[in-house]
UniProtKB/TrEMBL annotation:
Its cofactor is pyridoxal 5'-phosphate. It comes from Streptosporangium carneum. GO terms for molecular function: aromatic-L-amino-acid decarboxylase activity; pyridoxal phosphate binding; transaminase activity. Belongs to the group II decarboxylase family. This is Aspartate aminotransferase family protein. Keywords: Aminotransferase, Decarboxylase, Lyase, Pyridoxal phosphate, Transferase. One of its GO terms (biological process) is amino acid metabolic process. The modification N6-(pyridoxal phosphate)lysine is found at K310. The keyword Lyase applies. It comes from the Bacteria.
Length: 475
């Protein structure tokens, strides 16, 4: 394929440009080529790069007065900062459910910066149409209904904030008030119910003025992180018909447990509640035929959170939020200004997100879906699931370790069999080795480690290296 040739013209007002800017503009093709070569060296060295580690302290330098130009800045960055960056894009970074960036997503991200679109308005660009196409692809990928409309946001936390903001407006609708107009105080007491809520849910409730105290954790099933639906029904019944918000989980952080989404949705026949599903990475179970049953009922949700810089392997930051009630969403986030288009039947994204201005986060997702399709991304999901199962088997065979839960999808949760209190020390030693990165956690009162598989590069060879470092650093 022949790509278009870009001719860079020197500014007619060159004498008015800062000399560094003028020089960089004249040499931009060569500078971009140098940047490309530098990025390629980093990517080719990912297998050897320390996966994590404690960087050496670096005293901050003074703000440059004149600047060094792009080449000088790149040299300074390569010397002072890049060596201390983690290999989080690589195959043995197993912390925080962090994906990498597929080649197509990386190209899309570069072009996102190059084109520098602000897709909040349709007044000047077709960027919104590309975003809508990408959202439709994702909706199909996760098996959501045609009723679900979506938006791009920065991450799972902002997706939860957005979904719960719409839920807050729904509560107001049930009580005959508009929270968007009158404020959260008009609602009175609010109850939010969840079995194993992610920490971002409490943050969202705080930001939305509902308060962390509104969250009540419902009993979970024995030995599980999945909510006991019978106990959830009891909590809803105790509200005597008052509407509530239920935050269901499609993939908990520690053990990737799934609530029975179908059973929760059926409770709405008896009790009024908004069903928000936190499916930050669990939604991708839909791509594995052996695990798709775990997200049965996801299409019944009123709002859904999915994080794309996890298992879709797009660069940070990128997530989506879906809802059935775009009308309530627009009521919450509408933006009135003379220079903006009207709300209309198909609102501009500026009326649907917390941000007025944002980058075209859809472009990396569009590129990776266009490049590899459902089949390619399903292969990544199935391979990561298989790699997690394999590490679980290897850990289970080591006397020094004990699995704390079955490996249900892509996370292995385990602890030290004889000395759980030394897990923090173990995690630090593994990170310092540069061979792998696993995050410490607490599960059922025990200090534990989580190995989360979501990177497109991870293979069986990487699993073996992780197992070897676990064996090497066992107490």
């Amino acid at each position: 394929m022949r790509l278009p040739t870009v001719v860079l013209m020197r500014s007619q007002h060159g004498s008015r440009l800062h000399p560094r800017l003028d020089d960089d503009l004249r040499h931009l093709p060569e500078l971009l080529e140098a940047t490309r070569a530098y990025a390629v060296r980093i990517l080719r060295g990912l297998d050897e790069r320390p996966v994590a580690g404690t960087p050496a302290p670096s005293a901050p330098s003074a703000l440059p007065e004149r600047g060094a130009g792009l080449a000088g800045a790149m040299e300074t960055f390569a010397r002072r900062w890049e060596p201390g960056f983690s290999g989080s894009a690589g195959p043995r970074y197993l912390g925080f459910v962090t994906g990498g960036a597929t080649p197509a997503a990386l190209a899309g991200d570069w072009l996102t910066g190059t084109l520098d679109q602000n897709p909040t308005s349709a007044l000047d660009s077709g960027a919104q149409d590309l975003e809508r196409e990408t959202l439709a692809w994702l909706r199909e990928l996760f098996g959501l209904s045609e009723e679900h409309s979506g938006i791009f946001v920065s991450g799972a936390t902002m997706s939860n904030v957005t979904g719960l903001a719409i839920a807050r407006e729904w509560l107001g609708e049930q009580r005959g008030v508009s929270v968007a107009e009158e404020g959260a105080a008009a609602l009175g007491p609010v109850r939010v119910l969840s079995g194993s809520p992610h920490s971002s849910v409490g943050k969202a409730l705080s930001m939305l003025g509902l308060g962390r105290a509104a969250l009540r954790q419902v009993d979970v099933l024995p030995g599980r992180e999945a909510v006991d639906v019978a106990r959830l029904a009891d909590e809803l019944a105790a509200l005597d018909g008052r509407p509530a918000i239920v935050v269901a989980n499609a993939g908990t952080v520690n053990t990737v447990d799934f609530d029975d989404l179908r059973a929760i949705a059926e409770l709405r026949e008896r009790y009024p509640f908004w069903m928000h599903v936190d499916a930050a990475f669990g939604a991708f179970a839909a791509l594995s035929p052996e695990h798709a049953h775990l997200v049965d009922g996801l299409a019944e949700a009123d709002s859904v959170c999915v994080d794309l810089h996890k298992w879709l392997n797009v660069p940070y930051d990128g997530a989506v939020q879906f809802t059935r009630r775009r009308d309530l969403q627009a009521r919450v986030f509408r933006n009135a200004a003379a220079y903006l288009g009207p709300l209309g039947e198909t609102p501009d994204f500026i009326h649907l997100t917390p941000e007025n201005s944002r980058r075209l986060r859809a472009l990396p997702a569009w590129f990776t879906l266009a490049a590899y399709g459902r089949e390619g991304h399903a292969e990544i999901v199935r391979r990561d699931i298989a790699m997690a199962a394999r590490l679980g088997e290897l850990v289970d065979a080591m006397p020094a370790y004990r699995l704390l839960a079955p490996v249900r999808l892509n996370v292995v949760c385990f602890t030290l069999a004889a000395a759980p209190e030394r897990v923090g020390e173990l995690a630090a030693a593994i990170a310092a080795s540069g061979e792998a990165f696993l995050t410490p956690t607490v599960y059922d009162g025990l200090p534990a480690l989580r190995a989360a598989f979501s990177n497109w590069r991870t293979t069986d060879a990487d699993v073996r290296r992780v197992a070897e470092v676990l064996e090497a650093f066992r107490p």
